[in-house]
Amino acid sequence: MSETENNSSEVNEVDIDAIYRESEIQDVLDRLDAELVGLVPVKTRIREIAALLLVDKLRRQLDLTAGNPSMHMSFTGNPGTGKTTVAMRMADILHRLGYVRQGHLVAVTRDDLVGQYIGHTAPKTREVLKKAMGGVLFIDEAYYLYKPENERDYGAESIEILLQVMENQRDDLVVILAGYKDRMDKFFESNPGMSSRIAHHIDFPNYNPAELVQIAKLMLAESNYRMSAEAEEVFAQYVVKRMEMPNFANARSIRNALDRARLRQANRLFNSRGRMLTRVDLMTIEAEDFLKSRIFAEGAEDNSQDGE
Amino acid sequence: MITNPTGRITQGQFSFLPDLTDEQISAQIKWALAHDWAVSIEYTDDPHPRNTYWEMFGLPMFDLKDPAAILMEINEARKTFPNHYIRVMAFNSTRGVESPAMSFIVNRPPNEPGFGLVREEGQGREIRYSFHSYATDKPEGERY
After folding, report:
1. Measuring CA to CA, how many Å separate B56 from each of A286, B65, B108, B130, B143?
2. Number of Cβ within a 10 Å radius of residue B32
3. Residue B84: which domain range?
4. Which listed site, A74, A232, A304, B139, has its alpha carbon 20 to 30 Å from B64?
5. Is B46 within a domain?
6. Are the C-beta atoms of residues A219 and A52 closer than 8 Å to each other?
7. What is this model's ipTM?
8. Residue A286 · residue A231 · CB < 8 Å
9. What is the CATH number of the domain that holds B46?
10. How many cross-chain Cβ pairs, A to B, lie less than 8 Å apart?
11. In Å, how far are A3, A216, B95, B104 from A79, measured between CA atoms?
């Protein structure tokens, strides 16, 4: 007894800082903070996962059991709330923490998993699973896999294989299911096996107007554009109006709005031929580029599909 | 065979060594994947050394990143053909090379009866020699 105690006292200290720096996890978390606006619950959960994996690493150094925790996740949230973007980061984070070996992301939908005739589904699903091994398999709109109204649908077969691999080979790959909240809930209800094998159910909240404006600024900065102060104010109003309209898809709608603003800016510059354009002119999006939007044209017609 | 007292057939890489463990197989496959070689699995129950083309088990596996995927497939093959020879091949598709770069056996029958020497008398006192695998006396699928 005393001998074992001596042994353990020799190495009962580990340097959490060293491991932390080595994994460069701070770098990823910082980038997550800088590049993803809002999403507080998501970031908290990622931080928790990172901490857990880090502590497990330390425990292993001290020969304490560190069971490989299940890392399968489900991302639920409205369109455009950043599910795919976070999944991409997740692969990177899990790789840095040594949970997955390669750290690549394979994004698939129903079409990639489910075959068209008997005997087609199993090889197809296995093919995708094999490609994702050592990394993260991201299944977008996962609820399409299960079609209760058609009992001969091959989706169930695919789910079965998925479940088997998720259970038996969790060291080899991480599965992330994503989709809209209500439909994912229904999907899990009808596939309790799937729900219980997923350790992390993360819900992506909608953005508030201030966050959306900030996202817009980040998007513009990425492509070397910027808004004039006036334009920013107008855009804030635009966002509020756009949010009330149907088919609002959070950040995706913002991206579309910006694309159209760039179109109008180009048109405006084109029409101002005859004078020299400066670098600033080419970079700046003015208020009028937003004001021409159909949303500001009285009473915003509801028939617009994408809020032009 | 006299030159191979263990009676195990020796084809491809590592065949004079004890069987590779799954870990060692993974390490070899990792090497192949790191070189962008397409890995495939083949099986046969005809151990003759000139039997070059074995049956393919599934398709060659392209675009894989991790050996775990191929190990999964190997285990599948072992389950299907527990008493066959199974080998893993890595194909180098670089222009001008285009040939197998690795090939090693990952599964063999528990009992390998080996080869007999067949002497065929020809014209005059000429004698032609050939190998004959005792296993191939039985029909395909029932050997071993």
Report:
1. 63, 21, 16, 27, 18
2. 21
3. 22-111
4. A74
5. yes
6. no
7. 0.77
8. yes
9. 3.30.190.10
10. 38
11. 60, 16, 45, 49
- 8-state DSSP, B13: B
Contact across the interface for A133 and B69, Cβ inside 8 Å: yes
A158 token code pair: 């695919």
Low-confidence spans in chain B with pLDDT less than 50: 1
Give residue for tokens 């001290």: A62
Lookup: tokens for B95: 């222009």
The answer to the question of residue B122 being in a domain is no
- The count of structural domains within chain B is 1
A176 has a pLDDT exceeding 50: yes
Quick check: is B116 in a domain? no
Scanning B81-140 for CB atoms below 8 A from A yields none
Whether B131 maps to a domain, the answer reads no
Cα-based angle A193, A166, A61 (whole degrees, multiple of 5): 120
Nearest-CB residue to A135 (from B61, B65, B73): B65
Using the beta-carbon criterion (under 8 Å), do B69 and A130 form an inter-chain contact? yes
B56 touches A: beta carbon within 8 Å? no
Pick the residue from chain A with its C-alpha nearest to B64: A131
pLDDT in tens, B67-100: 999 999 999 999 999 999 999 999 999 999 999 9
Cα separation, A136 vs A4, whole angstroms? 40
Task: Indicate the burial class of A203 (C-beta count within 10 angstroms; 0-12, 13-18, 19 or more).
Answer: middle
8 Å CB contact between B71 and B26: yes
CB A295 within 8 A of CB A238: yes
pTM of the model: 0.79
Sign of CA dihedral A279, A283, A289, A290: negative
How many Å apart are CA A146 and CA A113, to the nearest integer? 12
Residues 6+ away with beta carbon under 8 Å from A24: A96
Question: Which distant-in-sequence residues (6+ apart) come within 8 Å of B7 by Cβ?
Answer: B1, B112, B113, B114
Q: Across chain A, how many H-helices and E-strands are there?
A: 15, 7
